[in-house]
Write a structure and sequence with these properties.
This protein is about 70% helix and about 0% strand. The chain is mostly helical. The chain is globular, with a radius of gyration of 20 Å. The relative contact order is 0.14.
């Protein structure tokens, strides 16, 4: 499950190593849900282009990313029934609720795709489908964040920063890809680049506050050991280095490239916007790796 590491969580025996399915689940599905939510909101206001090919690309990217996240999280090649088991536990499991909501968002998104990519229409009843998909996608990200925020024994997750941080990063990475696709199909607008910049600074603020929080918690004695958990010195150095990589890839390069995409002709602008989205996607994978790995050296409740 997404909340489980390869070996153990803080307070358990053994090291904590981030599980790649958990990283892909939170990063890919977050980006896909963020993109779908933005598309739905824009469509509900009928401010999104009715271009069929753009619609196919936008919805295909969003649903494809969500599919990668769901498959990596809930499916096991040796036990294909695991996905159905995951969905069936929605009354008691945030993991199950996230999977149900993400899967449910695909239904109105698919119906909206019929109107957008099939008929070139985004208004009327199609707008209602788009808004429903946006709401379900947003709740799916919230449910994903709650998987970790409700683990009270892990200070790095059970705190007030996790839910808004994961919501902001989903919005931000989704905005990067929406802006990239709009620019690529010749529909770039100041609104899409403004959303990227606003979401970028919001995400940066929350991430910086989150890192400060877990750095302070590392010095708190745990109930189990009674000593300060500072983590392995080499691991700490690696974490600092990876934070820098995440900062550059997730925030600095996308900001510079998004600003560059507002200038020049369509294709250079499109290349800059796509490069910003790719950089942000790489950065959020590193950020999410740290999200799991740094839980190992935070104090346990």
């Amino acid at each position: 499950m997404p909340g489980r590491a390869d070996a153990a969580l803080p307070g358990q025996a053994g090291p904590v190593r981030p599980a790649w399915p958990a990283i892909l689940f939170t990063a890919a599905s977050g980006m896909g849900c963020g993109l779908l939510a933005l598309v739905g909101v824009f469509a509900s206001g009928e401010t999104i282009p009715s271009d069929r090919w753009f619609g196919l690309a936008a919805l295909g990217t969003a649903l494809g990313a969500m599919g990668v996240g769901l498959v990596s999280s809930a499916c096991d090649p040796d036990r294909p029934q695991r996905f159905l088991h995951t969905l069936s536990r929605w009354r008691s499991s945030w993991h199950s609720r996230a999977a149900v909501l993400a899967t449910g968002a695909c239904v109105p998104a698919g119906l909206f795709a019929i109107g957008w990519a099939g008929y070139g229409e985004v208004g009327g009843i199609w707008r209602a489908f788009a808004l429903a998909a946006a709401l379900l996608a947003g709740f799916a990200v919230y449910a994903t964040a709650m998987i970790y925020a409700t683990l009270e024994t892990v200070h790095a997750w059970s705190n007030r920063w996790v839910v808004p941080l994961l919501l902001a990063l989903a919005l931000y990475t989704g905005a990067l890809w929406l802006h990239a696709l709009l620019t690529l199909f010749g529909h770039a607008s100041p609104d899409s680049s403004l959303i990227v910049v606003v979401a970028l600074f919001l995400s940066f603020y929350l991430k910086r506050r989150y890192w400060r929080f877990i750095d302070a918690v590392r010095a708190v004695p745990t109930l189990e050991t009674g000593i300060a958990e500072t983590g392995d010195p080499i691991a700490r150095e690696s974490a600092v280095r990876l934070r820098r990589y995440a900062f550059v890839l997730l925030f600095v390069l996308p900001l510079v490239l998004t600003m560059a995409a507002t200038e020049g002709s369509q294709w250079p602008a499109a290349l800059a916007a796509v490069a910003a989205a790719l950089s942000g996607s790489a950065g959020v994978v590193i950020e999410r790796w740290l999200f799991f790995a740094e839980a190992a050296t935070s104090g346990a409740a």
